[in-house]
Amino acid sequence: MKKIVPVLLSVFLLASCNGWVIQPLPGNPPTPFLPFTQTPSIFTGTPVIIGVTSASATPGVASPTASVTLTAFPTFTPSPIGPSTFTATPASPTVAPSGGPAISILVLGCNTSIDVLNGMGEVTNAYVTLKNVGGMELTNIKATLFARDEGRVHPDKTVELTSLAIGYQVTIKLTVDSTYRQETPIQVEVTSNQGVFPREGLASCRDIGLLAPNPAGLTTPIPAAP
């Protein structure tokens, strides 16, 4: 009994130091509050390809494949010259294959006169020499005069000849209704049973003056001068 009393006194003395008879168990300290942090996103830019009509790519590797279609520009073909367009060309023989038909058209000159009989006022007269320079006789020949400022159709616009032998020539007079005191570009066209020959013309038919052929010798074939 004497030993128990000192032990109890020791227990009470130890408890009076912190006010607890039984000490609480040590606890974990609270975890301090940390602000929320977001993991930054990682963006990988994909290049934009402009002007590509089709493309194929391998995953992870950009390898665009472009196809381009080229459009050709239209080509333009010039329109043929109309019959009303007159081009001055020097008189020269029409070239034909050896032995074929060919003719030389030579405009000697022009003059003007007043056609009272047909009521046309001023007319232009052209004197033309036709020469058979081909390899065959020409038959049923028709020579026709055209003028840019031509009015009504004159009766002597076309002259017809029965034939023209090889190496022969003939001088004819052709007339068209023309504008008073105006330059008159002309063209002469010759056809025959053997074909149509290219036209010959002058931008302005020069005045033949006193060199006009004798009317009595017109439309008469004669041997061609060498």
Please give a structural write-up.
The chain has one helix at 4-15; strands at residues 103-115, 121-132, 138-147, 158-164, 168-177, 186-192, 195-196, 200-202, 222-223. The chain has 226 residues and is mainly β. It has a domain at 103-223: Immunoglobulin-like (Sandwich), CATH 2.60.40.10. The strands form 2 sheets. Strands 3, 4, 6, 7 and 8 form a 5-stranded antiparallel β-sheet that branches. A hairpin with a 2-residue loop joins β6 and β7. It is globular and about 45 Å long.
Search tags:
29% strand; 5% helix; single chain; mainly beta; Immunoglobulin-like; 226 residues; four-stranded antiparallel β-sheet; 9 strands; five-stranded antiparallel β-sheet
Task: Tell me the layout of helices and strands.
Layout: H1 4-15, E1 103-115, E2 121-132, E3 138-147, E4 158-164, E5 168-177, E6 186-192, E7 195-196, E8 200-202, E9 222-223
Antiparallel strand pairs: 1-2, 2-5, 3-4, 3-6, 5-9, 6-7, 6-8
